[in-house]
Amino acid sequence: MSPINETGGDRERPTRGRLITLEGGEGAGKSTQISLLLRRLREAGVDAIATREPGGSEGAEILRKVLLSGVVKPLGPTAEAILFAAARIDHIDNTIEPALAAGTWVLSDRFSDSTRAYQGGAGGLDSRLLSALERVTLGGLCPDLTLILDLPAEEGLLRASRRLAPGETQDRFEDESLQFHERLRAAFLAIAAQEPNRCAVIDASASVTDVAEAIWSAVSSRLLGSANLDIVHGA
């Protein structure tokens, strides 16, 4: 992405990057779609990277193994939310914020809305605690666009089970009940309804190509309008 002049013209700095997050239940196709979106943005001349949560930085990847193994589950959603917050702080400090400051767009497979939905909406964690954790963790950082890939819970779980390699077991969250995943889906849709300016719901039951087109349409209309395209292409 081309830099723009600072006021006064003494030196140049890059335009701050954009943060796009992909959210949704298990099996919604986030990993596939984030790869397709990354390629398309780069083809459009946007400097972009892909990352994930939990994970995305050295410290956060260590916590990812702990969280997805299920060893924290007996401690309840509060402990899980706190560990997710710790992983997110490391992710933001070491991956997301440096990239955004350098003018790079960041595509994250899950972000803070997953904590709201998994530990909050589906896990029953008090929303006041979640809000407090967000204030400490995010420090004012908010996605420019959140794409919520929506899929019936039963279909998502079936897809997730099909992608398992021989001998591979489900992770801590895939192994939850159908009722949990139905609450999860409702929580994501509630977030979208509460913040329509930030969130776009994408029908993930469509074909991979159709989902990718719907995502690109949302990104184009919300973040790649005429003014933004001028910045992207250095006009």
TrEMBL record:
GO terms for biological process: dTDP biosynthetic process; dTTP biosynthetic process; dUDP biosynthetic process. It catalyses: dTMP + ATP = dTDP + ADP. The keyword Kinase applies. One of its GO terms (cellular component) is cytosol. ATP binds at G24, G25, E26, G27, A28, G29, K30, S31. InterPro entries: P-loop_NTPase, Thymidylate_kin-like_dom, Thymidylate_kin_CS, Thymidylate_kinase. Coiled coil: none annotated. Gene3D superfamilies: P-loop containing nucleotide triphosphate hydrolases (3.40.50.300). Pfam families: Thymidylate_kin. Keywords: ATP-binding, Kinase, Nucleotide biosynthesis, Nucleotide-binding, Transferase. It comes from the Bacteria. Residues 22-215 form the Thymidylate kinase-like domain. The keyword Transferase applies. Its EC number is 2.7.4.9. GO terms for molecular function: ATP binding; dTMP kinase activity. Phosphorylation of dTMP to form dTDP in both de novo and salvage pathways of dTTP synthesis. Belongs to the thymidylate kinase family. This is Thymidylate kinase. It comes from Methylocella tundrae. The gene is tmk.
